[in-house]
């Protein structure tokens, strides 16, 4: 890939220039261009969906035995691993995450394909208990064309979480990656083809979501949308889906509470809270962005946390020691800055950070330091809205009752963390917290075998888990008549 080239996009197995406007993607650490490409056009959406539909009908993919589809998915996992370093470096340039993080995302994508390959070949259809003269079964059928719409913060890992189960389920997939981070999805499509996936089963349409994502969602041949992104966009998609009676899964935003109880192991809690909010520069849906600390511990804990946060290494994403890279764009950094200004206007105090980094390389990229705000109430806007940056709001609490009320007082309910040495106490609290995922004495740990998703404004449906494939399949019940006689109601006598 050279800068002079205009990258082709993948439209139902044909690699060609997109029909939309030419644009450059850029490296958030320097603002310099990484690649030029033409966005997809609405004609490309039509061609991709029609091509995917034809491939679904005629490529034989849906009819292959599960172990045969699995073989291709295993090969995709293998090719991702073979090309892991190249992909991780490209992803670093695509969205500015530190190299260690992008290596982990690439490894996770490979693991996802491997997992769904195994899940595919071991997925069981069931014979259900019979209640009559028949054998009854529950089976699953592929849906057809599935759209996967993904955000910019974890390319390849997000796409793998949708593409792998959708292909395992026998479907065709059209990916709409975020306009600003299309490069890994294009690589993934190439890898799928190299692994022997029949042409047309995967397409990648870079460009604006308001145009392409919207058209994909509305397309009558698209039978399911799997979306990860902001809550506002998710609701828009849900409305369109309601009109089509189309199932959707929506992985949306969060404002997750992390709770430090008065019996917490402070070394673990400091490390976990730091990782929870500041890794990925806070650009994570599950960022632990609301910190609740038992009042008796508040000052000593905050002193340790602040000192440790001040030591985090912010800088060059290519340097293996870097813990926080730049934010995704100048515009996003301005949005984070507006939230910090709002927090101060709401009466908050800065305990750390709060001003963009400057000097040397910091002047080119969109860097922002770890920032801690305190002195606010949970009801205030910066404690309620997702900032999606390295900004932590810290609040002391007096009783567990008050804590629980505040922790659950959010439109979001994606994740939560608890730090306590008392497992019974943590268990009781964990069961009362309203969130799709609760981490106890750990944070931001994931397993592809464990379902993930949010409650309330954090989403609908679950990704991951062995049964994640079933989201991309339609359930069907089959009844096999075993009667010796014709059904009695019609009064027809058996003649043989
Ligand atoms: P957006 O909702 O703006 O975008 C997500 C994707 O949707 C992009 O590909 C975007 O395209 C596309 N899109 C935008 N408008 C439409 C539309 N009208 N119809 C269909 N698709 C559309 O989110 P961000 O990219 O800003 O991502 C950040 C958000 O994602 C945060 O809120 C974060 O919490 C959430 N997120 C949730 C995760 C989870 O698993 N719960 C994981 C990661 C992030 P484009 O950008 O090209 O215009």
Distance between the termini: 73 Å
The chain-level structural class is alpha/beta
Give me the count of strands. Answer: 23
Molecular shape: globular
Average pLDDT level: 97
Rg from alpha-carbon coordinates: 25 Å
CATH architecture of the largest domain: 3-Layer(aba) Sandwich
The number of helical segments is 14
What does the main sheet amount to?
A: 7 strands, mixed
Total domain count: 2
CATH class identity of the largest domain: Alpha Beta
Give the helix proportion (percent range): 25-40%
Question: For the record, what is the CATH homologous superfamily label of the largest domain?
Answer: Aldehyde Dehydrogenase, Chain A, domain 1
Low-confidence stretches: none
Strand order of the largest sheet: 15-16-17-14-13-19-20
Strand content: 15-25%
CATH fold naming of the largest domain: Aldehyde Dehydrogenase, Chain A, domain 1
Bound molecules: NADPH dihydro-nicotinamide-adenine-dinucleotide phosphate
Salient structural properties:
single chain; 496 residues; alpha/beta; Aldehyde Dehydrogenase, Chain A, domain 1; Aldehyde Dehydrogenase, Chain A, domain 2; 2 domains; six-stranded mixed sheet; binds NADPH dihydro-nicotinamide-adenine-dinucleotide phosphate
Structural summary, described in words:
There is one protein chain. This protein is an alpha/beta fold. The chain folds into two domains: 6-252 and 458-478, Aldehyde Dehydrogenase, Chain A, domain 1 (3-Layer(aba) Sandwich), CATH 3.40.605; 257-440, 3-Layer(aba) Sandwich (Aldehyde Dehydrogenase, Chain A, domain 2). It is built from 14 helices and 23 strands. It has helices at residues 42-58, 66-82, 84-95, 99-122, 157-168, 183-194, 209-218, 231-244, 266-278, 295-310, 330-345, 381-384, 400-407, 423-432; strands at 6-7, 9-11, 14-16, 22-26, 33-38, 126-128, 134-142, 145-149, 172-176, 202-204, 222-228, 248-251, 257-260, 290-294, 349-352, 371-374, 391-397, 412-413, 415-419, 437-440, 455-456, 459-460, 473-481. The protein has a seven-stranded mixed β-sheet, with helices on both faces. It has a six-stranded mixed β-sheet with strand order 10-9-8-11-12-22, with helices on both faces. It has a three-stranded mixed β-sheet with strand order 1-5-4, covered by helices on one side. The chain is globular, with a radius of gyration of 25 Å. It starts with 5 loop residues before the first strand and ends in a 15-residue tail after the last strand. The site of NADPH dihydro-nicotinamide-adenine-dinucleotide phosphate has 30 residues, from helix 7 and helix 8.
